[in-house]
Amino acid sequence: MGEKEVMNCNLFRKRQYSSLEKCCYIGEMQVHHCSKYEREFPFFREPQVVGCFSLDSNRGYCDDNHQLKYLHVPPDESKVNFDLNAGYEKVIKKSFELNEKLDNLLQWIIRNKKKIQVTRTTDKDVGLNTDFICYRGLLTTILVTVYEQQEDWQICATRFQNTIYLCAFNTEKNKKRQMDLTEKDKLMTSWGYKFEQYMTSEKEGQPPDLMVSVNEKEEYCSVLRSRLNRHSLVYGAEVDCLDPVSQKSDKSDKCSSLQHFVELKTSRKISHPKQERNFCRYKLLKWWAQSFLAGIPRVICGFRNDNGIVEKLQIFSVKEIPQEARGFWSPATCMNFCDEFLSFVQKNVTIDDPQCPVIRC
Q: How far apart are CA 139 and CA 257, in angstroms?
């Protein structure tokens, strides 16, 4: 990884179930230089949407799609003036200390188990017929690992009825980073949420309601099923909005395809070559990984100035992003590393006991 060509990924098994710190060593995975994973793109089945759920204004689970938002694009995408600071004093923030683990995704599974089971049965003890359960964010983190030198991560795993559940935890480095945020940093972390408010509405065909306070706790999540080589996957993915222009069916059917959804992002406007290189090397990598895993075809970016004013919108085709970032990273390399990581976890997490094994990387 850059100058460090090998990174060790240590695995542990939890001994005291109330704490992640009481672990014993299991194995080690070496993360090599990206060139080791440069080969043919592995098989990846297009993600199939099997369901959705919402989190309300208090992060309460709702087995419905009431948090689904609709894309609202201004008439002139090249001339916008979105103040991302507006209403900041009334923003309802989500606590970074909150660790919901897989709780909400598991609630959906409990209520909708038959939607992901291959074998139809009334037996409650039958497994889910999938190798891994996790969130898309965790898979995105794995995909970019061989190119991302600054971010560390901690992932825990446990096997139950032949399915491995993967869950990301905050690292000490990330906790310290959150604790050290300045007031300006905290303001900037809210800019993305405010941009989403400018670009979406709760009802199709209506303009955004900018008078409502931004609530960062609210969320709409799709549940996806896919396969990477021999690894079957079920994962939750928070998604930003549905484009009503490309999807005209009624709301009850709009969970069926993420081909009509759009990711919304913000980025500082690019003014010199170094910023362009960093944008292609890091931001486009994460945007591609996140969108590709969900089967979302477009990213709309609001380019802002240093004062948090969005001045221009630009649409990125997810299929074309790797070409725009050519020479900086390879999609095949990302997916091959993820495939090896999943194989490594499967090889080491072998005890099928919900009270025993937890793996930490």
A: 20
